[in-house]
């Protein structure tokens, strides 16, 4: 049966008229066809780079301060553990502090190789871990490694004290210096044999009795040398110091410390 003209028109309206040959289709493209995106202009790219640079400039100082504070905290924790080691040693040794051979050899590692030239000749860097008496009480020899260790101005060859002689901290060893009474004694290998201090002696005034500190604390180190600036303010001898009551603080030494190298210790002074 033939369709009427009116039926054909209705069918055309519903289905739509097919495009003529050669004409462009106005139909919506399929959903899976990607449309090209507009690229960043040069100005937009420069703006993004500028924003990133501003944010970095704001964040980097804060990150540097956080890193510095983390090193300070680690150093305090290290020395606090070492202080406990001293007291445990004394409890097992008739109230006496350790005797060892060399400034650094109270604890820590034997570097490979140790640095023993020049002023480091009596540091005891070559002493094995088993000859470092506090290792047995502290346990982890890494506790003697300060994360801010920059070396020693008197011995500039090793990058750090840890790398040179295996200890970042300088105990007052063998004899008195800079108004500080010695704490640990010498076994006789590098210095003449000396005895060590007793805990009962420290107990007279423990809160100001210096036991040890960051390696550069002795005033024969040039304070403005970069190797002397571990935690301290530039050109100020401010070091992390372990005291006899086992508290650790960042202590600022008197500016005239170098003038009193041979003064006798006095418990009634600022420190002894």
Description:
The structure is a single chain. The protein is an alpha+beta fold and 272 residues long. The protein has one domain (62-260). Helix content is 28%, strand content 8%. It has 5 helices and 6 strands; from the N terminus they run ααβααββαβββ. It has helices spanning 5-15, 42-92, 135-138, 161-165, 199-202, and strands spanning 99-100, 169-171, 185-186, 210-214, 238-243, 248-252. The strands form 2 sheets. It has a 4-stranded antiparallel beta sheet. A two-stranded parallel sheet has the order 1-3. The longest helix is centred in the N-terminal third of the chain and has 51 residues, at 42-92. 35% of the residues are buried. The model is unreliable at 1-5 and 7-17 (pLDDT under 50).
How do the strands and helices of this protein lay out in sequence?
Elements: H1 5-15, H2 42-92, E1 99-100, H3 135-138, H4 161-165, E2 169-171, E3 185-186, H5 199-202, E4 210-214, E5 238-243, E6 248-252
Parallel strand pairs: 1-3
Antiparallel strand pairs: 2-4, 4-5, 5-6
Main pleated sheet: 4 strands, antiparallel
| Gyration radius from CA atoms, angstroms | 36 Å
What series of H and E elements makes up the topology?
HHEHHEEHEEE
Mean pLDDT: 88
Distance between the termini: 123 Å
The domain count comes to 1
Q: Give the total of beta strands.
A: 6
Strand order of the largest sheet: 2-4-5-6
Total helical elements: 5
Entry keywords:
272 residues; elongated; disordered N terminus; 5 helices; alpha+beta
Provide a compact summary of the structure.
The chain is an alpha+beta fold and 272 residues long. It has helices at 5-15, 42-92, 135-138, 161-165, 199-202; strands at 99-100, 169-171, 185-186, 210-214, 238-243, 248-252.
